[in-house]
Amino acid sequence: MTRDEAFLQFLLRMGDNTLVLGHRVSEWCGHAPVLEEDIALANTALDLIGQTQMWLALAGEVQGEGKSADDLAFLRDAWDFRNVLLVEVPNGDFGRTLMRQFLFDAWHKLMLERLMNSSDERVAAIAAKAVKEVTYHVERSRDTVVGLGDGTEESHARMQEALDYLWPYVGELFAADAVDEAMVAAGIAPDPASLRADYDALVGAAMAEATLSLPKSDFAHKGGRNGRMHTEHLGHLLTQMQWLQRAYPGATW
Amino acid sequence: MYAQMVKSEATNDDPERLAAFQARIDAGEKIEPKDWMPEGYRKTLIRQIGQHAHSEIVGQLPEGNWITRAPTLERKAILLAKVQDEAGHGLYLYCAAETLGVSRDELTEMLLDGRMKYSSIFNYPTLNWADIGAVGWLVDGAAIMNQVPLQRTSFGPYSRAMIRICKEESFHQRQGYDAIRKMAEGTPEQRRMAQDALNRLWFPSLMMFGPSDKDSVHSEQSMKWKIKMNTNDELRQKFVDQTVPQIEFLGLDLPDPGIKWNEERGHYDYTDPDWSEFYDVIKGNGPCNTDRLAARNKAWDDGKWVRDGLLAHARKKAAARVAAE
Question: Which residues of A touch B306 (CB under 8 A)?
């Protein structure tokens, strides 16, 4: 794998994470438990879509085949997607959506903070812009997870169930492979494994405050970051997201 | 126009106080929440502002219907931002209504059990992507016709909410027109979508202004109180006059063969909407009434545990703070 091939994979991972999660969060629009949450979810989705535009535009540039961010978002099939499995699992109830958000945001913030020092100026610039938004995301998702974990008996039970369901999807965020090694060597991105200790501290403190127990098993589902095996859910998501572009090829919107 | 057929409430207040109140309104003063006001004025405003707020919230649904299918990242972002603005408008308006002594939860309950209404337009479906352009262009365009004059309404909090809302609505209308223009200038299929959207949404948009003045029984008192600034027919005509040249610019066919410039009146003539359809929609028999209310009820019921959980946590924290002091 050349440096640019690895760089492209890295950029797709960043952009597909925000694309797929942004899509999932946008599914809530108009259906949230309370108006303020509806607005906050739309805001989060909007930030993630904006970040996607930046990551995928850069991915297209590095790929050098003249593809736009939209081409990459709307015209790739599931096997070419490089997002972690965590972001493609369905929303479930509001509790699962916010738990997934927190588990992702905590990683996202740590990652972006490191990427601000990337040897690639374009990556550093995107990270510097995104980290401002993500700092707010993690603050909000943490508060909500704590509030619901330490709320009523029912909200506590639902949040524990959400954590138990989602925890096996967390490990993939930290699983390093040849792409990561190439990125570390080029000074573009950190070794994902090096973020784990800070992540555990951040998530551990929040779960303690939320009176939730972290599952004992560290088993991790993998296959999204390298496209080897996505969940069954991604195909359905893409069917909806890509429909107009697929049904009317060549049209501009 | 998101408030339709708002019934003016009768008032049994002391004639002298009523006269003094009317004099303030006639002098262009703003009425503020702590000022004395006739009960009829308060009740009418609660109904009107509440209906307007509900329309913003239910109005999220037809547009939200396309967020996950938006054809580009930029269109998706614009649509999300727009629907988020609508939720924000709902929030300001509920706050304005709360100053009149009714809580957001009470208003929500009344929407959910059908005691309060929202605009008839949101009981129509959005069936193709051009509908999203048409909603911004026609529906927000019709809403602005009514909301711009309401910036001068007599009730202070409502007037101030309208000033903020109008700024965003005119952006919505422009983005809607831009989206449908792209379709009208696009492939034959896209053009077909644009024409279909215009044909389907034209008459429902005209209905947004409410029944014809000769059948509109609620206007007089509200106009005296400056809660309603123009008659339904005035606004409808203004909307038609503004929109017909825009349709021509797009190169789309007119959605009504009755549209014709009338030199003598200096306005476009047009065919009245089918008012029996309007009354059917108001009564709950529009194409989407049942689904829209079911979606709002589901969101509210499914969200109960979340609202209860966050409230319980806030109480625990407050109790812990008191104990620590």
Answer: 33-34, 37, 94-95, 148, 155
φ and ψ of B260, to 5 deg: -155, 140
Alpha-carbon span B89 to B109, nearest angstrom: 19
Write the pLDDT tens digit of every residue in A23-53. Answer: 999 999 999 999 999 999 999 999 999 999 9
CB contact under 8 A, B72 and A253: yes
CB atoms A248 and B189 under 8 Å: yes
Is B75's CB within 8 Å of A144's CB?
no
Please report, for chain A, the start and end positions of each structural domain, with discontinuous segments joined by +: 3-215+222-247
**Of A87-101, A123-137, A185-199, B219-233, which gets the smallest average pLDDT?**
B219-233
- How many other CB atoms are there within 10 angstroms of residue A133's CB atom? 18
Residue B309 main-chain phi, psi, to 5 deg: -65, -45
pLDDT digits (tens, 9 = 90+) for A54-108: 999 999 999 999 999 999 999 999 999 999 999 999 999 999 999 999 999 999 9
With 0-12 / 13-18 / 19 or more C-beta atoms within 10 angstroms meaning exposed / middle / buried, residue A73 is buried
Domain ranges of chain B: 15-274
SS3 state of residue B273: coil
Q: How far does the CA of residue A116 sit from the closest CA of chain B (Å)?
A: 24
User: Buried (b) or exposed (e) across A74-113, using 16+ Cβ within 10 A?
Assistant: bebebeebbbbbbbbbeeebbbbbbbbbbbbbbbbbbbbb
Contact across the interface for B71 and A74, Cβ inside 8 Å: yes
pLDDT bin (cut points 50, 70, 90) of residue B29 is: very high
Four-CA torsion B175, B227, B39, B24, nearest 10 degrees: 130
Q: Which of B305, B307, B311, B315 to probe the A interface (max A CBs under 10 A)?
A: B305
Asked if A228 contacts A175 with a C-beta cutoff of 8 angstroms, the reply is no
Q: Are B282 and A10 spatial neighbours (Cβ–Cβ below 8 Å)?
A: no
The mean pLDDT of chain B is 95
Average pLDDT of the segment spanning B247-268: 98
pLDDT score for B1 = 53
Q: What is the ipTM of this complex?
A: 0.97
Domain A3-215+222-247: CATH class, spelled out: mainly alpha
- Contact list, A52 vs chain B (CB under 8 Å): 73
Query: Averaged over A142-147, what is the pLDDT?
Result: 98
Interchain proximity A146–B187, CB inside 8 Å: no
| CATH code for the domain defined by B15-274 | 1.20.1260.10
* A window 139-178, beta carbon within 8 A of B: 144, 146-148, 150-152, 154-156, 158
Q: What residue in A sits closest to B181 (Cα-Cα)?
A: A253
On whether any CB of chain A is under 8 Å from the CB of B81, the answer is yes
- Measured between beta carbons, which residues in chain B are less than 8 angstroms from residue A94? 302-303, 306
Q: Is the pLDDT of residue B147 over 70?
A: yes
Query: Contact, A54 vs A124, CB < 8 A?
Result: no
Comparing CB atoms, the residue among B75, B187, B303 nearest residue A34 is B303
Question: Cα-atom radius of gyration of chain A, to the nearest Å?
Answer: 18
